[in-house]
Design brief:
This protein is α+β, with helices and mostly antiparallel strands. It folds into 4 domains: about 80 residues, Alpha-Beta Plaits (2-Layer Sandwich), CATH 3.30.70.1170; about 200 residues, Vaccinia Virus protein VP39 (Rossmann fold); about 60 residues, no CATH class; about 60 residues, Nuclear Transport Factor 2, Chain: A, CATH 3.10.450.720. About 25% of the residues lie in helices and about 25% in strands. It has 13 helices and 20 strands. α1 crosses α2 and α9 packs parallel to α10. The longest helix has 18 residues. It is globular. Bound molecules: S-adenosylmethionine.
């Protein structure tokens, strides 16, 4: 029963897109969903050569993303160490289309008076857009991403995915859109990937059809307006908002985009409705609105005030140049030097789940101070390779490591070792001779496979 498309939905798409397009759409919605991943350019340069995925080399994701790859079948991702190492992110292909307007976002970046680019991804879990934004602005030293999710349990998953992706310029927060009010016009770009009626998921997740209703669409459209209106003041004039949904109807899409422009004060620069494809992609809509006016960022006086952090350097030779470290309590975190102050400001004024890259814990004991590397730094761009001795794991041992089993490295140096899988870091062990302590985070342990 749930596989039947709702009749009101079919009528609506006929009305909005005309008979031939609607017919084609309902045909595609009853087909199968292709699997796509987006590779992490910080870790993978040649997906065909480096990854073990069944890549369909015939299909190119033109107009979507440089990093998108189509798979011929869906593998068991949990059994692929590269998946846990943040080498790629499993994401449906249409959602990657936000990258096709990158020149527009770069224009806003060029106009930024201080060369910084403060991005807020407001509805971010589980991290598809945020990981993508980190990759898109990888070459911009002043870029930072506040990756926010209102639901606590989802924010925890988001923080895990962001840590594995390995950008040190991310602050993961767990706030309501209205909590950003005190920020003034802090952000150059705000992404609102809004909760929606989910029509675009009808193929991938047929059960979602049963949850759809005309009233639900109206409620979603009203909620989306509330979310955007709450966050609009946080966007600086001249900055851009990416507004997106994974649905087809115009009340949640084009009408809301026009409403943002006319009611809140902006100009619609672009909009695109993606339909499901045979080779890749589900339903997705996105639009770009530039906020009217010319005023720059809100100027924050004394941004580190109240943050109770102290600069810290000792014993951190494994952190690359270009990053600065701050200590709070026992934890030392690394931040890109050019974004650090803004990131700490955001972190100390929001409900932060994580910020920057957790680099080390400082242990003060009877024998003096010792530095324990944190799992996050192994996966992060901020890690300077060659400081910790490295041990390459077989597939079998990599999976044992990810299950937090005990591994032994009798011939290796004692102390902290960086374990890698085909050259990509996974994490640390503490080698104590006849066995080692597995430092893969407990909460990330793979189970039941
Ligand atoms: N951007 C994510 C990605 O690419 O992986 C997907 C986001 S999903 C479409 C929408 C998110 O909005 C969900 O994580 C949901 O918890 C969150 N959300 C739900 N109600 C919200 C609200 N009132 N304000 C802000 N976010 C909300």
């Amino acid at each position: 029963m749930e596989n039947i498309l709702p009749i009101e939905f079919l009528n609506r798409i006929k009305e909005e897109f005309g008979e031939p397009q609607a017919g084609r759409l309902s045909e595609l919605l009853n087909g199968t969903s292709p699997t796509t991943v987006r590779v992490n350019p910080a870790k993978i340069q040649d997906p065909g050569a480096q990854l073990d995925l069944p890549i369909d080399t015939e299909v190119r994701m033109e107009g979507r993303s440089r990093y998108g790859v189509v798979l011929a079948q869906r593998p068991t991702f949990t059994l692929d160490p590269f998946f846990h190492a943040g080498a790629y992110y499993v994401q449906e292909g249409s959602s990657m289309a936000i990258e096709n307007r990158l020149p527009l976002y770069q224009e806003v970046l060029r106009e930024s008076a201080d060369g910084k680019f403060r991005i807020l991804d407001l509805c971010a879990a589980p991290g598809g857009k945020s990981t993508h934004l980190v990759s898109m602005f990888r070459d911009c030293p002043g870029a930072m991403v506040v990756s926010n999710e209102v639901i606590r349990s989802r924010a925890t998953i988001l923080a895990e995915n962001m840590a594995k992706w390995g950008g040190a310029n991310v602050v993961v927060t767990n706030n309501d859109p209205a909590d950003f009010k005190p920020f003034g016009s802090f952000f150059d770009m705000v992404v609102v990937d809004a909760p929606c009626s989910g029509e675009g998921m009808f193929r991938k997740d047929p059960a979602s059809r049963a949850e759809w209703s005309v009233e639900g669409v109206a409620q979603c459209a009203a909620r989306q307006k509330r979310i955007v209106a709450d966050i609009w003041p946080a966007l600086r004039a001249g900055g851009v908002m990416i507004y997106s949904t994974c649905t087809y109807n115009s009340s949640e899409n084009g009408e809301n985009l026009s409403w943002i422009a006319s009611e809140l004060g902006g100009e619609v620069l672009y909009s695109e409705q993606c339909f499901p494809g045979e080779k890749y992609g589900e339903g997705f809509f996105f639009g770009v609105v530039r906020k009217n006016g010319a005023e720059q960022h809100a100027v924050i006086k004394d941004p580190l005030r109240g943050a109770s952090v102290k600069p810290y350097k000792e014993g951190l030779e494994f952190v690359k140049d270009g990053y600065v470290c701050y200590r709070k309590g026992d934890l030392v975190k690394a931040y890109p030097a050019e974004a650090a102050v803004d990131m700490i400001y955001a972190e100390s004024h929001l409900r932060a789940v994580s910020a920057g890259c957790a680099a080390a814990t400082v242990m003060e004991g009877a024998k003096g101070r010792s530095i324990v590397p944190e799992g996050d730094i192994a996966l992060c761009e901020a890690l300077k390779r060659g400081v910790f001795p490295e041990v390459e794991l077989s597939l079998e041992d990599a999976l044992r490591y990810l299950r937090r089993e005990t591994l032994a490295f009798p011939g290796e140096a004692k102390g902290y070792l960086l374990v890698t899988y085909r050259g990509i870091p996974l994490g640390f062990v503490k080698n104590i001779g006849n066995r080692s302590n597995n430092l893969w985070p407990q909460g990330w342990r793979i189970r039941n496979v």
